[in-house]
């Protein structure tokens, strides 16, 4: 059992009336929330989790669109905390599809009985920290009230779908869908004229699959993307067993990599060390091998930081597009512009994306040249044509990294609020905490490597680090931790410098919030590498949690004094 002062726990929770008291509150039951619940139970701590979805899985619960799959090798996109779990689960494809990923999440929840401490179909609407009692209290749309000294936001980086407010959507006679909130029932596009808006990672996955089913598909493209072949395939017999036999060594190795992934050759030289001929041969080899998005970007050390190196790889992909797509006009429109560095928007990988534009039933519409004016009863009207459609798919992305946090009214009884704290961009210390909001933690928050790395590894890292800190507080008889303004300012400045030394912030991407009108432009993920970040987190902890104030708040709360008796 833990040295942590326990609170009164009313298992089963409450609706409307008296609050439920636990040790730790958790928001979200995706891969992060599930792992945290598992760890809390192992530590003998009580928890209450709330999840807006009807079951576990997070991203893989909501994103059920055709073609949805992970783009990290399945064996690397797996939990590492249980040898039994590792042994008994078998992935069927190199890049698992959404149904398989959801089955994995459900299997983990069942196996470790994780749903016991979670409430589903329940959205947290507010989180308030009482400075006197030292308790966070969550309130939900179903009337739940739950309190704990600590609260962990495990709500995902890409969990608030963004749908542009096109005029006339209410007039549309057909069906419309957002890829990030896809129906649970089968959607059948056969015999239908479908329009899809958006060519990010999601659109690029959905377009080939929808094109194969629909009578006709019109792709509305604003910015062309660079995508490279996934070369997905079934897992070979014995492949996973072999991987797992070295999983412990792999786990050490992967946590010392930039992206928390292995499986592609790390760059050993700059592009300038190769002749144009050698570059071509080497990039051709990488293209043929395909695989995770980093495979192509990591061809040379300088692709992410140097214009000439980046342009050489971007030109290689543009040449590939022109080779694959038969109609030169369509190929030209699919080529990303020269001023868009490859990798500055999230790099997708694909199965037959460019090839799909050779199909007779697929049309490409450039909505940068002729923007969408409105949705009509019969389809979509752009500045120069009207397209008749039976269904519209919005593959228009998310209010990334901050949207889901800011959708919750997060504040303290002394008047600090997340909304105010982030009015000038999402300032955090290490992406883990926000100054002024004690005892509130984020998993994969802005300012952490998060979306720039294998999220399972970063989830495990964050959860372990936070729970070690909670252990430390208990062991030292503290009950409050807060990031200092100074440490936060220094971290934000460091993260900004790291990003600006690269080509990454150049694009109008969701990384910088440019996809949501009015959102402050800040490069949100930490781009210093997961390896460097993890080392820093370790050093900070070893240095007595440098940059955090750890203290004992004398509380006036009756519930906690009752529990302490
Ligand atoms: P996204 O990358 O933000 O792409 C959204 C697309 O919609 C872009 O093509 C964008 O055009 C377009 N768009 C947005 N607003 C528009 C408007 N008002 N008018 C016209 N077009 C508009 O979103 P996403 O494709 O859903 O991907 C988001 C992230 O989810 C990915 O980057 C990735 O991290 C994650 N994801 C991962 C996987 C995976 O394989 N693991 C798969 C799917 C998604 P512009 O480019 O011009 O803004």
Mean of all residue-level pLDDT scores: 94
The CATH topology of the largest domain corresponds to: FAD/NAD(P)-binding domain
As residue ranges, the low-confidence spans are: 1-16, 558-565
Q: How many individual domains?
A: 2
- What is the CA-CA span between the terminal residues? 16 Å
The distinct ligands, each listed once, are:
NADP nicotinamide-adenine-dinucleotide phosphate
**What is the correct CATH architecture of the largest domain?**
3-Layer(bba) Sandwich
Cα radius of gyration in angstroms: 24 Å
Q: What's the CATH superfamily of the largest domain, by name?
A: FAD/NAD(P)-binding domain
Number of E-type strands: 22
Strand line-up of the largest beta sheet: 1-7-6-5-19
Judged by helices, strands and strand pairing, the structural class is alpha/beta
User: Which CATH class of the largest domain applies here?
Assistant: Alpha Beta
The largest pleated sheet is described as: 5 strands, mixed
Q: Describe the global form.
A: globular
What percent of residues adopt helix (DSSP H or I)?
25-40%
Number of DSSP helical runs = 18
Strand content: 15-25%
